[in-house]
Amino acid sequence: MGLGMEIVGGYAEAPGDIFTPVTPFTGDSFLVKNANPAKRTFLGSAWAYLHVEGAMRIRSPKLHDNVQGLNWTISGYAPVPVLEHDTVQTVYPQDVLTVEVTGSSTAGQVEQACLLMYYEDLPGVNARLVNWTDIAGRIKNIFTVRVNLTTTSAKNWTGTAAINSYVDLFKANVDYALLGYMTSPMATAVGIRGPDTGNMRIGGPALGSSWNQTRDYFVRLNRKWGVPTIPVINGSNKFSTTVDVAANEMISGVKVTLIFAELG
Known about the structure:
The chain folds into two domains: about 5-120, Jelly Rolls (Sandwich); about 130-264, Jelly Rolls, CATH 2.60.120. The chain has helices spanning about 130-135, 215-225, and strands at about 5-15, 20, 25, 40-50, 55-60, 70-75, 90, 100, 110-120, 130, 140-150, 160, 175-185, 190-195, 200-205, 230-235, 240-245, 255-264. It starts with a strand and ends with a strand. It has a five-stranded antiparallel beta sheet with strand order 3-1-9-4-7, with no helix packed on it. It has a five-stranded antiparallel beta sheet with strand order 10-16-13-18-11. By secondary structure, it is mostly beta strands.
């Protein structure tokens, strides 16, 4: 079974009060990947980071309706997931989701939005994702890794750095389960990508001081969704596993702390 989980994001500059299409970041797409239709594919989470109170909308003829679809009011400076429930939204391979936001009308202010997609069987991908019950009895140590990122673009993933760029203490040929993360300051999203994630970006919202919601983020998703969501990364892949963020034009850098469990 080719498991896959992917965060995809995009931006709209100064959309104002009119719903404006979100332009995907480079390499991202709101096209649902061509997964096995006999297996589950779903939209598990969604959020936006806006400069002012606005809204986020996701539409498709294959959702409830293609008029309003999923439509939420979003507070300013609050990239808190608006869709992250025990019940997820089924999506369909090759369907294109229309993602739109309203927000600031000030020129130069960039609003950002992200979706977290899950694939139970995606041909060509086989991310190392596990359940909490698979690793709970194997944990030897908690291992925290800081990564300092310099952000340079509000219209793309930015600040890319290897997970060992700041602290290089990973043990070769040892597996580490990524339980969650913390960020400072708040930004739109944090992502991690490498061979063990199937070279798909896995991540979630960068909630800053609300770190209690992300320090065990992937464990929480596993408990909510009942599918493997906890990434396992081998220490030998430290050079080819990277961290990046989505952050608006007001942010010049983000400090990320990755919270791993060393497995025995």
